[in-house]
Fold each of these.
Amino acid sequence: MSKEQKHILLAEDDVDFGNLLKQYLEMSGYTVVWKANGLDALNTFKEHPFDICVFDVMMPKMDGFTLAEEIVELNPEVPFLFLTARKLKEDRLKGLKLGADDYIVKPFDADELVLRIHNIIKRSAKKSLGTITREGVIEIGNYSFNQRRLELIFEDEVQQLTEKEANLIQFLFDRKNQMLKREEILNAVWKNDDYFSGRSMDVFISRLRKYFKKDTSINIASSRGIGLEFKLG
């Protein structure tokens, strides 16, 4: 599907800014439906399919966070990002916890927004990039991962894994392209979220970054105070 076919739902209550942003996105090749409040945006989402949603946080009738919660209930697969004039850490954390793919503070460069939208759509379209191709083997970017044989293969190079390394890769891959809390990973893989388990996880994450470093489409990104994201695509 070409970029010209991608549909964006934009919810922004500032008329001048919303109109300007709509025009800029359309000039960049997107089809944009713009609504000036959260309630109208929600009703529009129920009637038409969209590839991505861009929500202002502070809006009349329904704020961006509430709108996002409603959208996730209707279709959890649709990516969305927030625009806001507020720089509060609490707002950013709340947005990410809702599952936002990005959170952009105003004022921002329009070209940056277009690039972020493009990357989110591209990443969303590549969710099938990591797929099971044969029994026990998963393709992760340019790597082949065999959990049963505890092997990570890049071209002709075989990295022998420990059982915990393999379990960690499997857990992160199953939840690729989403922010994971540290305690969530620890409880699932280490069965404990105490201090020593946390230090152990940091060591394992460093190892995995080295193992996957030959494919630039794979990135294990840390967000201080939040957690980790296994980015693929």
Note: The helical segments are 15-27, 38-47, 64-74, 89-97, 110-125, 163-174, 182-190, 195-211.
Amino acid sequence: MNIRCLIFGILSMFSIAVSAQSGDNVIDEVIWVVGDEAILKSDVETARMEAVQMGQRLDGDPYCVIPEQLAIQKLFLHQASIDSVEVSDADVFQQVDSRINYYIQNIGSKEKMEEYFGKTTTQIREQLYNLIRDEEMTAEVRQNLVKNIKVTPAQVRRYFRELPEDSIPFIPTKVECQIITRNPVVPQEEIDRVKDELRDYTERVNNGTAQFSTLALLYSEDKVSAQQGGELGFAGRGSYVPEFANVAFNLTDPKSISKIVETEYGFHIIQLIEKRGDQINCRHILRRPRVSMEALQQCINDLDSITAEINRGLYTFDNCVAIVSYDKDTRNNYGIMVNKNDATPKFEMKDLPAEVARAVAGLQVGEISKPFIMVDSKGKEVVAMVKLKSRTNGHRATMADDYQAMLDVVVNKLSEEKIENWIRSKQKSTYIHINDEWQNCEFKYPGWIK
């Protein structure tokens, strides 16, 4: 115990010294020690501010909930060290960039983000790297603890037999949809106009009258990256469509700008920022040709004609998908839309694209909607029509219709029980010290205070 107290004292002095050197007005302090790991007051404040930005709701006083969450994470990280758990740096860096992008988009600018957190972007990036790495390692340990949990159908039946009826999960209404899309014709004059714009941007950067990042902020139609000067963050080749990756990864001079690249998203110019192993960080400006109302109306007329032929029995919806649909994600699967959340064709209405949900809402099973204009996953205006393939109305879960959902409930319950028992066991065998002023809390796991 004396050795532990010595460690605590050294950690406390170290944290105060770090704060003094950093020039912060508020002196940092160690508020918890879990094993040999310290939790700083600044750790709690940073986590609280991030929770606000990520829209996370905390169940209770953040100055009680967050230290306990951090303490639990320390237990998992200690186990990760024992188990030699490793995570991919590339994956962590990619998540860091995504998180930075999210902050900038929601706070308003890079400068406002730095002001909000009171740190430079580099400091935020470093802190996020450690935070996300720890999150990934914690998740890996949790997964290892519960991966061998097996549940039989008899256990599922018994669990739900003993549940009060009003506690049985409610399964929301789900639908299956087939879709046909048509892309409006864009005249060559409009494509030339967009290319001329991009050539003008390139010339302005090359002659020193504008910065690439400024032009991206003003003109790029990739609104997320535009807010940070077109910067995409470090990513591997597989993160980009092939046409973009082939050009971006062949850039070697950060001062040069790529030729115009056409992808399914539109037309781009690219500027290399930095290469790091098999990843690059680059900027781009995206411009899309404008679609005329006349071209959209022509697509609507085309789909109206196809619907009429289907209704006369000349074709089936399935046949038409392969022949006339432009949507490459569904064209070879009879137009069936796939929910990216669970890789199934079942959608809750809230998970459908808004335009599709509106079109489906008034349909009976087997009916085809009128053609409508929508923005596809690539950000382009297209014309679509959908067929409602099936609808399962909202209901209380039953073994006959919803076994998988009920199985998931039981597996999750047993997993949480195992995790909770593991945490309580670790509390008993781990040195824990909490400063007096941080003990007045109703913790989820009371075993922190011994």
Note: The longest strand covers residues 381-392.
Amino acid sequence: MGNRKYEIDTPENREFLRDQAAQLIRFGKAFPSPAGSSYWLGDDGTAWKDRDRQTWITARMAHVYSLGTFLGIEGSRELAAKAIHGLLTELHDDEHDGWYAGVHADGTPFGTKQCYAHAFVILAGCSAMLAGIPEAAELLEKAEAVYDRYFWEEETGLSRDTWNMEFTEPDSYRGLNANMHSVEAFLADADITGKGYYRIRAGRIIDHVIAWASANEWRIPEHYTSDWEADLECNKDRPDDQFKPYGATPGHGIEWARLITQWALSSFCGDREGAAPYLGAAQNLYRRAVEDGWYADGAPGIVYTTDWNGQPLVHDRMHWTLAEAINTSSVLYHVTGREEYAADYAAFLAYLDDKVIDHVHGSWFHQLDQNNALLETVWPGKSDLYHATQAMLIPTSDCSVSIAKAVRDSITA
């Protein structure tokens, strides 16, 4: 028998997850700048005040500390409120609407208007509103309006990726990373506000992704032209790009599998026959990604990218891929009861505990090399807590509901 703290649904496993979630949330408490935007966190949780303060990180921190509010972790409500305020003030473009990519250390705004960041603002607004955070409803209302006006393409059932700062020129690039986090945000919005059209939008995006992936041996093409033609050679010269890496990204295949499962369970409400094609697609995505990525080069961990034949390209282990593997293996086990997912979950948690958790300073190492030694070429320090915190909560939560509502409901039940 293995270590019971890694075995899904055991009391020891629940205690391990609960303790790790609390440690993560305590680790990040130094994130807010005076105006509320999020500092990038260093290895020991101190704020790197000379770095840019990003909208997407601030929104994630608002979400995480809303979760901390439900968990009863001291100071979480106040920290969530600071992040929400930062999103409404120094990170918001009062002249052209929407959110800057971020602000420099001196407070000067920069960057394009990114669908990716705006999706996280919606998620932050939803979670914080559920937590009763002041200004959250105002934030969500503004975020929905901007997203609907500039990013959602009703005719295609997909989202644009990027505009210039003035919202006058859309970029020609289209991508699935922003659409993936839009699905996450849409499901949260539908759960928390009751606006069912957001769940319908999520389903439209999902239908595209399943069609594209199933035609490509369940490896998801990530990058597209303006008319949604797959660009399989995109960024071949920058294979380890933070957000647009070349080739297939196993971590995203895993993450999509969980979101598809959540959407199917929430949309078909017990109709297993209706949900079955989507649950099957989710399992195909997960299995392809794990077969391609996990232990792909003789060492534990999930490689960052592969080529279109499933051969590893960037061997680095990013912490977020492991977090999503923990999430999705637990969700698929609870949905199907298949022991293979429980075995994967136990293996992922053992690897997490052995290699990825920083048992000295706290939080998780964000990037390791193929030998599982610390690497900081793409993700120096420990920028935020979103993926890691969710991975400690999703395995014990209702997998048909967005995480903030699931955690809130479990605490108040």
Note: The longest strand covers residues 312-314.
Amino acid sequence: MFEVKNFFDNDDIKIVDSMGAYSVIEYQRDLSVSPLEAQTAYYCNAMNVRKRQVVCDVSKANGGVTLQSGAMQWTVGDVNATTGIKGVGDLLGKALRGSVTGESAIKPEYQGTGMLVLEPTYKHILLINVADWNGSIVLDDGLFLASDSSLKHKLVARSNFSSAVAGNEGLFNLGIEGNGVLVLESRCPREELVEVTLQNDVLKVDGNMAIAWSGSLNFTVERSGKSLIGSAASGEGLVNVYRGTGKVLLAPVNK
């Protein structure tokens, strides 16, 4: 049995979102500042640049909670951490996945009945139900923060390697499959993210603006026109193309 005071009941802390085992708290004021930092803190607050944290009720997570390495700040109660490694083959697979996606190779898994609190961040926190993406979502590099441990992580390769290299894009992305909740760190708030739903159609994006897309979509990097002359005339060159049926989550600026 444990009791935590001056956290959820603190008038400086507000729960701004919740889903499954996860709650997102936001500090309404940054009080832990020195006189030299006060002016910066004042204008950060005015521009909604605020400190946020994810709090996990581990008992409600499907299979426990998987974290990005180094994301845990503190736990209380019966919470046990493991490496999540299920053998040599699993270790090699995770090491390969981490080396090409920019994610940590080993993501610790937490199980039990207590509370898990993540490190504070000034980025925006997105809670996503993977079932809403037909059980498969692909992420841009560096967004993963946490997820239900029942979700499967895998490498997703581009359809055409040569154009990915020409477009200065990576060859692989992190794919998440299954039924559970996913937690992402984003530079842009959810209020500014545009969700495009395709039904056997095509989305072309000039720039690295998509932060996530359905695993059912075919993602390539192509010329904006049918020919080199057409691409030069449009002034766009190479564009990211998402083709098929599914959803794409777009930020208003390049990431």
Note: The longest helix spans residues 88-101.
